[in-house]
Specification:
heterodimer; A: about 250 residues; alpha+beta; Lambda Exonuclease, Chain A; 4-stranded antiparallel sheet; 9 helices; about 30% helix; about 15% strand; flat; B: about 160 residues; Alpha-Beta Plaits; two-stranded antiparallel sheet; 4 helices; about 25% helix
Chain lengths: ~250, ~160
């Protein structure tokens, strides 16, 4: 029988969503144009070439190495791109993802990425074109909600604050706004520099939809302790981690 | 310093914490309705700061326009909101006023809110407050601004009595 990875235990909707995010089997909800993505990431001008830190690998004359022969370089590494980052923030009010799950998702489904997991934000570093691929994937799918998550290179504290009156996560730099027509548009890049045009991120999810798609356990939605299997496995991990290496003489 | 106790001991202190951060329009309507009451001694607005420039990161220093940083009119005075209104703390003269404030919140806030009575303001000077403002500070001003802040930027006196 072929091996089938088991990403996360549990039977609640949150556990199911975590499995979906980690396996990469997520629903695509919106489209974002490549130039728009480049604009909100803010690392280079739309349409410009990728800047590189070294010549393409093919021109470099790499040393004889079995690992280099076994591992196919990513497109970004092959071209010698710079390493750039994308950073996501998810609201604690039923945001679509959480830093740990975003990191798992990036590390499991993409090669050559360096996910950084922090309490309120999650950063992915990779060669520029590889990073853009990850960012596009996460923004276009159910791993992103224009109101409850956002791209923030700096000032991320809105994730743990109450939502604004219009249901959008607070942002000190006001990068994305819910406009009159009900669509969230970004008018600054991820670090707060104004951009030339407004980038449409789409309509926010309804509170019911967000609660259904979230990967956050919350007592007012799906409580962590309500998922017996998750608790059992967390206990098992803690138990084994504590006992590991314990060697009474 | 010990004789600088605030004369506000017998007054009630209240805190209103709405479930959402208020829009400037809602904040303006709510604050005006509360301040129309007789018996409001002083009032604080709390919330996340809305700076005028990007404070850090690669875009540090870039002028920042925030939708919530707007001029609002309170009791005929125009003031700039420098925070997104997250909670309001106020001191009132008696329990009747407390009830009236509660009714106003119930009427004007479109979502649930917490409303509680407690001790939310300083009643005597701190050491750094004493060092900054001296021994003769107006008891009503105690704790209204942090010792490093500028009083004129952060405090509005609406009723000069």
């Amino acid at each position: 029988m072929a091996y089938k990875p088991q990403y996360y235990p549990g039977a609640t909707s949150v556990a199911v969503n975590r499995r979906k995010h980690m396996s990469g089997d997520v629903e695509k909800l919106r489209e974002i144009a490549d130039d728009d993505l480049v604009m909100i990431l803010g690392h280079r001008a739309p349409g410009s070439d990728y800047r590189s830190t070294h010549p393409p690998l093919a021109e470099m004359g790499e040393p004889e190495c079995s690992i280099r022969q076994a591992v196919e370089p990513t497109p970004g590494a092959k071209a010698g791109d710079r390493v750039r980052y994308v950073q996501f923030v998810d609201s604690m009010y039923n945001g679509p993802s959480v830093p740990y799950v975003r990191s798992y998702s990036a590390a499991i489904n993409f090669r050559g990425v360096d996910p950084g997991t922090l309490s309120g934000r999650q950063v992915i570093e990779a060669r520029e074109r590889d990073m853009e691929e990850v960012a596009k994937f996460q923004i276009e799918t159910e791993m992103f909600d224009p109101a409850l998550s956002s791209l923030r290179g700096a000032t991320v504290h809105g994730h743990s604050l109450r939502l604004q009156e219009d249901g959008v996560m607070f942002d000190m730099l006001d990068r994305a706004r819910l406009e009159q027509d009900g669509i969230v548009r970004m008018h600054k890049d991820q670090v707060g520099r104004p951009i030339d045009k407004k980038v449409e991120l789409g309509k926010p999810m309804s509170p019911q939809e967000a609660a259904k798609r979230t990967t956050i356990f919350r007592v007012d939605n799906v409580a962590y302790r309500s998922d017996k299997e998750v608790i059992e496995w967390v206990h098992r991990v803690f138990d084994q981690r504590t006992k590991y290496g314990f060697k009474p003489e | 310093m010990s004789d600088l106790n605030s004369d506000t001991k017998k007054r009630l202190q209240l805190e209103i914490v709405p479930q959402r951060l208020l829009k400037p329009e809602t904040a303006q309507v709510l604050l005006n309705a509360i301040l129309d009451l007789d018996g409001i001694v002083r009032l604080f607005i709390h919330g996340p700061r809305l700076p005028g420039t990007v404070p850090y990161g690669p875009a540090k220093g870039t002028p920042l326009t925030h939708d919530a940083r707007r001029l609002i009119e309170i009791e005929g005075n125009t003031m700039e909101l420098m925070v997104s209104v997250g909670s309001i703390r106020l001191e009132v003269t008696d329990a009747d006023v407390k009830e009236q404030v509660y009714e106003i919140c119930k009427k004007l806030l479109p979502f649930p809110f917490e409303f509680r009575e407690g001790n939310f303001m300083l009643t005597r000077q701190t050491v750094s407050g004493y060092a900054r403002f001296g021994p003769n500070q107006d008891p009503l001003m105690i704790g209204l601004t942090d010792p490093k802040g500028k009083l004129k930027d952060q405090v509005y006196i609406l009723k000069k009595e």
